[in-house]
Design a protein that fits this description.
By secondary structure, the protein is mainly alpha-helical. It has 16 helices and no strands.
Length: 309
Amino acid sequence: MVKVDYTSKAKKILFGSKDNKGLIANIVIYSLLLGIGFVYLYPLIYMFVNSMKDLSDLLNPMVNWIPTRIFYGNYIKALKVLNYFPTLYQTFYVTIVTSLAQLISSAIIGYGFARYNFPGKKLFFVLMIITFLIPQQVLMIPRFLMYQRLGMLKSVLSFFVPALLGQGLNQALFILIFYQFFSMIPKSIEEAAQIDGANDFKVFLKIAIPSAIPAFVITFVLSFVWYWNETYLTAIYFGDAIKTLPIQLQKFVDTYQMMFPSGTVITDRLNESVRMAGTLLTILPLLIVYFIVQKWLIESIDSAGITGE
């Protein structure tokens, strides 16, 4: 009769083995994932639920997570206050144009640092890193005066030109990402291409760029998000010439009170539900962009990490 070792079997189930993590490890991992997921999802769920409440549900303490009826009036008012679709177009225009300029210049600069030796290379590399350490607000006044002399204020050029020249928002980080990727490409591959007659541009186009697709995905997504959410520099450089959704959201209360003056009609007064609707409409394009690119973004981070290692 075969004797079963229940103790070792129980330990294997609880603590796992080389091929299995075990019950306890799985419980800890999934608990952490649920906790982190709750922290990120709770604000979105809260905003969505409250944005769908009418004034009676909002004032009723008995109504918490499930409104008595679905109310779309908050979104209709928020669309009007934000001037949503024209503002959305301007926001996409500023964000995409600047992100693409930052993407192209970061790839070229990162490739130059990774594959070429030139006088002062180390000095320029250190200066590039320093630009990442210095807050943008410190450079705001001299840049503002320079843009004013060049006639770049109240125009997308105040974002586009620095991004194209390697001085965009947090661009040193993107240059470092490309630098890491291009440094990992074996030089023998490039030398073989040069022997076959490929010039430097073809080597960059045919070999370097396909090898750094994860860097392009990560850089574009992060650049897109950071330029989309930027409000401080946007308000200073653009003024009232270009309006973005985050800027309009900052002015939401004043704009709402101008469009719907407080009077005898209590439903026209600003409440939390309308604010939640405006906030959700502002972040909705970012969520849509994430769901579109999440497959490539996750694969890029999984294969390379955020630093390209």
